[in-house]
Design goal:
By secondary structure, the protein is α/β, with parallel strands linked by helices. The chain contains 18 helices and 19 strands. Helix 2 (24-35) packs across helix 14 (384-398) and helix 11 runs parallel beside helix 12. The N and C termini lie far apart (51 Å). The structure holds NADP nicotinamide-adenine-dinucleotide phosphate.
């Protein structure tokens, strides 16, 4: 048994935790760490970018202002006296796992799922076929996506996938620049959207309306677009809604959401198109078989599908060609391996148990934890990350004593950053960007915020 004296010293010393990634999962992890009040903590929330909030800033569609309001709650966490935001630091590039072992007792990886999944069809890589993640990054002003990435000179666009991201990108393409004026879209992006030649947007769902992944509020937003006719194919939604919904309570819950979608689609299918300048066409039971074109994409060969007796998706062999000058692949996000951290290439996540990172042999990697999409895959809404991160933090706090014992003497993070000559940014720098964006909105007479666009714009405000 250890003597009371050192034990006392150890528990008074704060547990130093590095959170890699300042999106909702990372910030909720910091929140759970500071709220518990049992183990004193100091949390460094790091991000590659000088701007915090991850997908809240660079993923939530600009016209979803209510969801973006989550940033206010996240802000309170970053302003907690035991939490520090460290921007401009890339895990794996600037700092390694070994570096963080010198500076922190534990690391929570909350790096999300930043790349697109593949469709694995011929022509997928033709110019003009783009990952929705790229398009989302562009209209959200992510500094990694150049402004010139999109010109929107195609009249017809095909969006593949029936998730909420697909609905976001369809909506942004189908809205007029006037409808988006009061959002935080960077001005140069809004200018491109204003000059858009897109007139028809096709959405391909490889299964039926009952199996679509999008949720009712998002579907409603699409169906209620004021400036576009949304065409719902009555024959593809002619399904008996009671065919699902029996069985376990969770299945009934899924079925309830699916039935709401079906009801909304049915009501909408009765509307006559009103001759609006833009049209959105929904195609259910339709999967891309091939992207057509030589030098760049000119269309999509779409195969009709159905479910077999076991509920598996199968092609009918019937195909139709849809013209398209641009194809947006919105078939889900995938995690990216972190240098020095185990990775499951099939699930595109870090293997874990209760948030504790597991090695390839199933043993716990001491001091390593995960939260959010890199832990459970790209599912759920922003709020899902709160309970997810809280679960990880519970496991981490259970380990607090052994973590302290394993790393009794730490060096300050600044020491390592200075050794490496890493010019990082801090929360004050972010507030400067925040203010510059609010000022820009006043100047342009556009809403509460207009985002800066590109690294150069950030550098002008933050320096370095
Ligand atoms: P998602 O919900 O997983 O949807 C992916 C879609 O792509 C599904 O319809 C899927 O069909 C389809 N798909 C997958 N592989 C395909 C292929 N090879 N060919 C054709 N279709 C294919 O992913 P997401 O839309 O990227 O969204 C990620 C998460 O973020 C979700 O949890 C979503 O709810 C959340 N999100 C929420 C909001 C919001 O709350 N407003 C906004 C954006 C995103 P199958 O079902 O047949 O696999």
């Amino acid at each position: 048994m250890s003597s009371p004296e050192p034990e006392q010293q150890r528990t008074d010393e704060p547990l130093r935790v590095a959170v890699v990634g300042s999106g909702p999962a990372g910030v909720y992890a910091a929140d759970a760490l500071t709220r518990q009040g049992r183990v004193p903590v100091r949390v460094d929330v790091m991000d590659r970018l000088p701007t915090p909030y991850g997908l809240v800033r660079y993923g939530v569609a600009p016209d979803h202002t209510k969801i973006k309001g989550v940033a206010r709650a996240l802000r309170r966490v970053l302003e907690h006296p035991d939490v520090r935001f460290v921007g401009g630091v890339e895990f794996g590039g600037d700092l390694t796992r070994a570096d963080l072992a010198r500076t922190h007792h534990a690391v929570v990886y909350a790096t999300g799922a930043s790349v697109d999944r593949r469709m694995d069809v011929p022509g997928e890589d033709l110019p003009g076929s783009v990952a929705a993640t790229d398009f989302v990054n562009w209209y959200c002003g992510h500094p990694d996506t150049a402004l010139e990435r999109f010109v929107l000179d195609a009249e017809e666009v095909v969006v593949v996938g029936a998730g909420n991201v697909a609905l976001d990108v369809v909506r942004i393409l189908a809205k007029t620049a006037d409808e988006l004026r009061h959002t935080d879209i960077p001005q140069p992006v809004l200018d491109v959207l204003a000059a858009s030649r897109v007139r028809t947007v096709h959405l391909l769902s490889r299964r039926g309306p009952l199996q679509a992944k999008f949720t009712a509020p998002e579907l409603r937003d699409l169906l209620e677009l004021p400036g576009a006719d949304v065409v719902v194919p009555a024959d593809q939604i002619d399904i008996d809604p009671t065919a699902v919904g029996t069985g376990a309570p969770e299945l009934r819950e899924v079925a309830r959401a699916a039935r709401t979608n079906l009801r909304l689609l049915r009501e909408h299918a009765e509307h006559e198109p009103r001759g609006r300048s833009r049209t959105v066409r929904l195609h259910f039971w339709s999967r891309p078989q091939e992207l057509l074109g030589e030098e760049r994409v000119t269309g999509v060969r779409v195969e009709s599908t159905r479910l077999d007796a076991e509920g598996r998706l199968t092609g009918t062999g019937e195909t139709t060609d849809l013209p398209a000058g641009m194809v947006l692949r919105s078939v889900g996000y995938a995690g990216v391996p972190l240098p020095g951290v185990p990775f499951d290439p099939a699930g595109r996540t870090v293997p874990q148990e209760r948030g504790r990172v597991l090695d390839t042999d199933g043993t716990v990697v001491p001091g390593d934890y995960v939260a959010g999409w890199i832990k459970r895959g790209a599912t759920g809404v922003i709020g899902t990350n709160k309970s997810d991160a809280a679960g990880t933090v519970r496991a981490l706090l259970e380990d607090a004593e052994s973590l302290r014992a394993a790393a009794p003497e730490l060096v300050p993070l600044e020491t390592v950053l200075d050794e490496r000559g890493i010019a990082h940014s801090d929360y004050e720098d972010w507030l400067r960007i925040d203010t510059a964006e609010a000022d820009q909105a006043v100047e342009l007479d556009r809403g509460e915020r207009v985002k800066l666009h590109g690294w150069e714009a950030y550098r002008r405000v933050v320096g370095g």
